[in-house]
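Sorry, any thoughts here?
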Amino acid sequence: TEVTEKLEEVVLIWTKQIRQVLMESEQIRREADDVGPSAELEHWKSRMSSFNSLLDEIKSSRVKKIISILQAARSKTLKQWKELDGRVTIAANEAKDNVRYLYALDKYFGPLANASPVMMEHIPSLMNIVCVIYYTSPYYNTSEHMTSLFLKITNQMINTCKTYLSEG
């Protein structure tokens, strides 16, 4: 029982740390007003990296051994652990999926940033891919995500026009 208590303390510390990471990831992002769509991709890539590292740690043999010992001891801390493990898995899957969909838009980010204000040739294709993302992505098809993406695309178009006017 002494070993079980020590292992439960370790799992409770891990649980607290994982909750903190999840809570921070769910907070509203603060970004500059003129940030472009590449920032959206970078955000999700960073989040994917964080959650994949966390998943790797959760799936490590050391953690699995501790969890299996606590399962044998019928520890009550495992209920919290399993819930958090599921939440981390969902967050990792969301980030991975969003990166995959946003990479489809990535080829338009460069031309959008470097084009002249007559960037109309890129916009229909860009909007088609945004529509595909909205209708097919299981995670990115929320109004918050789409609004954020459209805002960043618009910011990039405005920045391109400003640069064109100031240089031209």
Remarks:
- The chain has one domain: 1-167.
- The mean pLDDT is 87.
- DSSP finds six helices and no strands in the chain.
- Residues 1-167 form one domain.
